[in-house]
Amino acid sequence: MDYTDNKGKGIVLNTQGFKKEQVEFLSQELNQKFNFNSWVGLNKNKPVIKISGKNFELFKELTSPYIIPSLTYKLPEPRIK
């Protein structure tokens, strides 16, 4: 998991090891089940899921119980409203 930059706070899920159809399915599920604004992009011609920074707080709330402390630096800082 990584983020696009420190300004937009968008999130990129590095799913390059999966087939494009699988990544598209997962992106659609994220949009339907969690009301995310996600889409499939390419990184070195491999599919990745991009999630809008507007969904960052919900993404963090849903995933934080599963992120080990040594990897929390991978998440962007909280958004300032």
Radius of gyration: 12 Å
Instruction: Name the CATH architecture.
Output: Roll
End-to-end separation:
24 Å
Backbone shape: globular
Oligomer: single chain
The CATH topology assignment is Endonuclease I-creI
Structure description:
- The chain is of the alpha+beta class.
- The protein has one domain: Endonuclease I-creI (Roll), CATH 3.10.28.10.
- It contains two helices and four strands, in the order ββαββα.
- The protein has a four-stranded antiparallel β-sheet, with helices on one face.
- It is globular.
- The model has no long low-confidence stretch (mean pLDDT 86).
Task: Show the helix and strand layout.
Blueprint: E1 2-3, E2 11-13, H1 20-34, E3 38-43, E4 46-51, H2 56-63
Antiparallel strand pairs: 1-2, 2-4, 3-4
Compact summary:
The protein has helices at residues 20-34, 56-63; strands at 2-3, 11-13, 38-43, 46-51. It has 81 residues and is of the alpha+beta class. The longest helix is centred in the middle third of the chain and has 15 residues, at 20-34.
Features:
Endonuclease I-creI; 4-stranded antiparallel β-sheet
